[in-house]
Amino acid sequence: SDWDYTPGTSNEVPFPGKGDSKTEVLFDSAEMAKHFGPGAITQIRYPVVSNVSNSVHNRVVIKMRNVDNSFAYSSARYYSTDFQKLVYDSSLVITQNASTLGVIDLQDTFFYAGKGLMLTFYTDNTNSDPAAVNVRTFPAPNGSLTKGTLTKAYNVSTGVNVFTSSYFRTGNLISARPNFTLRVNPNPPLMYD
């Protein structure tokens, strides 16, 4: 099924107008349980606030991870160092009307286990900073920062490596998440003879 929220405010995550960025989005297990159970995630959709014309990203990497129900960011705001499954690694050009949903078809299926869910986005550009994409957001549960979005970005001229740089060890924590709609195919029931 699709997970859809009433659009709220907006933020330039996970596609800021910066050449290099890293964003972790944490979905609380209680929120996930309201919308779907365990299954295969194959697509991410997102609404934007205004029309976007030719926001060019040389490389976008998306990783996913099941997290324990108790997972929360500490006050130190460190990015997760645990294993995450690579589900997308390609260029991405966003040209989108505000009345439509942006769509990212994952290159590999992610099997959601029914707990909390973490999505990590990397944008890695080589020549110029892309146009920012204002994605609609919704608030974290009870306004909690520890269940929010951890993000940090730098202009391409800084020359930051989003995958190895210590600059991304900590990030800015905001109490909202991108208003993603996740395409999830429920696990089929087991068949017995």
Structure explained in plain terms:
- The structure is a single chain.
- Mean pLDDT is 85; it is low at 1-8.
- The chain has one helix and twelve strands, in the order E-E-H-E-E-E-E-E-E-E-E-E-E.
- A six-stranded antiparallel sheet has the order 5-4-7-2-9-10, with helices on one face. The chain has a three-stranded antiparallel sheet with strand order 1-8-11, with no helix packed on it. The chain has a three-stranded antiparallel sheet with strand order 6-3-12, with no helix packed on it.
- The longest helix has 7 residues, at 29-35.
- The chain has one helix at residues 29-35; strands at 10-11, 20-27, 39-47, 52-67, 85-96, 101-112, 116-124, 135-139, 149-154, 172-174, 176-178, 181-186.
- The radius of gyration is 16 Å and the shape is globular.
Multimeric organization: single chain
What global shape is seen? globular
Largest sheet: number of strands, sense, barrel closure? 6 strands, antiparallel
Distance between the termini: 28 Å
How much of the polypeptide forms β-strand, as a percent range? over 45%
Number of helices: 1
Binned, the helix content reads under 10%
Q: Taking Cα atoms only, what radius of gyration do you get, to the nearest Å?
A: 16 Å
